[in-house]
Amino acid sequence: MEKYIGKGVFSAVAIGKISVFKRSDMEVKRIKIDDPDGEIERLENAKKKAVSELEKIYEKALKEVGEANAQIFEIHIMMIDDDDYNDAIKEMITNQSVNAEYAVAVTADNFAEMFASMDDAYMQARSADVRDISNRIISCLGDNESSSSLSDEKVIICADDLAPSETVSLDKEKVLAFVTAHGSSNSHTAILARNMNIPAIIGVGDKFLSEIKDGDMAIADGFTGEFIVSPDDETKALYEKKQKDDEEKKALLQELKGKENVTLDGRKINVFANIGSVDNIGAVLLNDAGGIGLFRSEFLYLENSDYPTEEEQFKVYKRVLESMAGKKVIIRTLDIGADKQADYFNLDKEENPALGLRAIRLCLDRPEIFKTQLRALFRASVYGKLGIMFPMITSVWEVEEILALCDTVKNELKRDGIEYSDSIELGIMIETPAAAVISDKLAPLVDFFSVGTNDLTQYTLACDRQNPRIERFCDTHHEAVLRLIEIAAKNAHANNAWIGICGELAADTTLTETFLRMGIDELSVSPTFVLKVRDAVRKTDLSK
Ligand code: PEP
Ligand code: MG
Fold first, then answer.
1. pLDDT tens for residues 120-139?
2. Does residue 503's CB lie within 6 angstroms of at least one atom of ligand 1?
3. φ, ψ for residue 440, nearest 5 deg
4. Are residues 174 and 57 part of one domain?
5. Which amino acid residue places its CA nearest to atom 6 of ligand 1?
6. Per-residue pLDDT tens for 420-460?
7. Would residue 76 show up in a list of annotated catalytic residues for this protein?
8. If you measure from the C-alpha of residue 116 to the centroid of ligand 1, how many angstroms do you get, rounded to a whole number?
9. What 3-state class would DSSP assign to 117?
10. How many structural domains comprise the chain?
């Protein structure tokens, strides 16, 4: 078993035999010619043939990868007629009396090197395009067909690199995956592989081609960029499972994509995702979540060695809001303390940190830290649909103090002429029994509740969530926890507020019906559970 690491450009797993990609021999010789005009005519004929081949590839690409991606071949057709490129070839034929093949090859090298040396990654990737069209012209000059033949079995294509036209020309039905020694994730080859829904790994390095042969069994994991040759049985079984899970998930995604989350009797439920960093947004979009129900902003603080500035925070919140393109994003304010500690906060050691100066208590204790975060949040609010929620609430006075601080921040922004949205939703987390019990008093003050079942279970059942030894006492389905959620839901609705659940329990589909019957309006779960919960919601019938 041999493992190589590259960069995955399409997330899927392929398992099968290797086929090493072979090109027809393109060795170009420098030949002295006597008739430059005749040679230029030969070049023009080859270019015509290349254009007609590219038109066919364009049609194929149009069907397989759509118009936007097929456009590269229109660009290739235009590149063939590019004046600078043609002048360079013709000047070489005329001035140096060399054959067209040689002039095309040298010009291709010069242009490709020029692109490769540019700073811009997009322009660098064009180097492969100029080589691609030049190889096609050379092949047409020699009257070669530039196609490769594959066996009937589906295979993993391994190559040093693949040109965009080579990628599209391969019979998609026979390709399990592409693995290349070189290539960039911006190259059209990578873009095309992604759009052809074929797992692809690029940049595995030169060595692998000399160590593999046709027919070797291999695994290409486009999620991690791992390419495993001759896997043992255990590894193979592991990847077969990964492949099966992924396929089931993709099938569910296909089935649910764009569909509303409505119960069988027509109640609309929001299924959102929980994230801890901007890096998780890809997973949110990939799993087709309706929004972000919990952004744990404390990770921004935990990743830093000092307090993140207003500007640093603003940039992160803005990016999350923009990436979600108008879908709701609920950002939770700093929830530090207890199990989440950052040295620079210099917090005193506490006997019972879970019951100590954590979350909103710390923010109200150190309003300057809290105000910096609020300013960043309000400033970012103009870039999308923002909700802000506050963790670990136990009393009405805390919410009143928070709202007063929000007003202060808004007034300061107004004074400084800085814009913020006037439709930000403000909510609190229901994480303590106290908050659930007095939810009739809290609900009139806010737009929404979000139940943090992880802490609500901990505080209701007096079970430290960090202590594995008491797991059997920590029953998340405990009637006391469920009753508190029900009380909060009733009081939210009686006061025109909505209520969601963002703790781990939201992903427990054995409780989906129970939650919906309580009147829960939103379930926010890890991105990987979004589809499973959407599926459960759509199968629930509340009319019975
Ligand atoms: C919760 O307590 O359920 C919650 C969502 O917050 P965290 O897990 O971050 O404490
Ligand atoms: Mg919590």
1. 877 887 888 898 899 899 98
2. yes
3. -65, -30
4. no
5. 452
6. 999 999 999 999 999 999 999 999 999 999 999 999 999 99
7. no
8. 48
9. coil
10. 3
